[in-house]
Amino acid sequence: MAEHERPKGIGDDSLGPLDSNVELDGAPPHPSTSTPPSSSSSPSPPPDLWCSGPLLRAVQLLGLFDDCKHFVDMPLLTSTEEVTREFEELVEEAKRKKKEKAQNDGDKEEEKEETLPTRRSLLSVVERHFAPPGTELEAFEPPDFSETPRDFLPRVAAAAPSSSEGGEEKEREQVRAFALRVHRLWPQLCRRRRRRTTEAPTKQLQSSSLLETGGWSVVPGERFRESYYWDSYWTLRGLLASRMPLTAAAVVRTLCELAGKAGSSGGMNDLVPNGARTYYRGRSQPPLLADAAAALFLGCCSNANDAAAIEARKVALEVALPVAKAEHAAWCRWPRTVRVEVEVEGGSKKVASFARYFPHSAPGPRPEAWREDTELAAEFLSSSSCETDRKELWMALAAAAESGWDFSTRWLAGGVAGGRGGKSGERGKRNDGDNDGDKGDGDEATTKNPSPPNPRLGLAHLVIPVDLNVFLARAEAALSTLCLAAGEVGEAKRFAGLAGERLGKIDELLWDPATRSWADLALISSSAEKCGEDQAFRAEMRNAARYASCWSPLWARRRVAEAAASAAAGSSSSSSSELDLQAVSSLLSSGIICPGGLVSASLEKGSKEQWDGDNGWPPLQAILAEGCADAFASSSSS
Question: Looking at the predicted structure, is the pLDDT value of residue 526 above 50?
Fold first, then answer.
């Protein structure tokens, strides 16, 4: 989901404290979903102000705000030049006072420490030049929202009461009442660009870190004031259940617009960024755009003559399909997709291509978590660490954030940033899935290495995640469905074939018969940079049966089979019902299933990271619940 450094929630402060005298410069009228994507006419935000530079560094070092994300979400009321000039004047004043003090104290040499203004003076400058976080947007009630939607959740609709079914009837009513309470939260979470007010005087917002889009969308809530990529897929599923096709279409359109706004970070031109902020442009998230567009199209097919449904299907085919095709191609290119060499039963080796998380830009600490990242570097990287080690850490943190699993012991399978605990020249010890920890060379190194290693040091970009490749298989199946609906029969067949081929490779090379589950692969190489496009990483299986993601292929089987059947693409790997039943059986005994639902990890109870231990996340519930249901349905039909 979005980066959950703090728990999400829903409240009236989702946008931060709103100032009624603040408005956007040239805010357009709220568009309908039929409006084509267009870039904002407001000035392009200067990325160095919110993404890097001395002002950001000073604000975060002095701890002006408890949450690092607070400052980078504050819109600018004046010009970049003005706030920079005032900040530089503060620094010069601080230097002058420091020099005077050193002279008065009789110090011959000036201290080499960084000179910063006082916290109070810097806070005064920030409060004069910036508006509260999130004031670019406003909450509103979308046009297709109804307090009690027609045909809402028909499967839990109350049946006729009877003496024998009184308990069941009461339970259905309770479920429906709860679902309606959740449904009625949508107006609190829908956002559009803040409109002009008639009140004067007003302050104009000159620029911000927000990647503006033309329509409206839905946000997670609280400190997550903007759209997030893979959150939006699950949001869309909920909107369709709430009979809100126009808002669902607006969510898809927003993702497509964001894909066109990430191009300034090299290689991100065709990818949807992590979220709708400039500081997210260097990384993406799990590729669910095609899946979302297919869900939108299929979810609106039953109302063939409904104007809103017609508009939603149009967005899926005319707006989302070309963007989703380009995104898929980007994920299938090096360095996001790499060739791996895996040793199979009997000692032979096979080479195949799989995808991994690999942000295109991770030049330093994440701006929205600046202090956390720099403190991690200070704690685990020695002062003599080379710049390569720091770059490796920034890449590892960004890759974990791109995965949505930020953070988890799962990524220790790729090694440890800075090579702590491993042989010289290697990337540190790896988590091989055993309870007794990692197996590395060198007793001395082992005693010096934190035990267990901090999960945030895990090299996520050196892991082939099974669930990422499942998402891509579903994306290929979804693209097949959309292409068929658009009359692109050849393309539909091609994508269906790709989906079947990918799922077949997952079954062949990522299935672990010992645990009866699938597993991630750890890439073995002296450095990520030294393994080029034409070379293959040596890979070893890791994490089998440890994490909920190990059963994610269950979620792809039916979708891939349906795409192959619809496109007449021939047989697919979707016939592995026996494999799926084995996986369901191992899931039941894994420790992943607990009272109340699924947890992220079966063995990592001691970890404090949110994607470990007893934490359960909604996407995991949906993926495995639907995957298990599909496995049983397939078994029954065969």
Answer: no
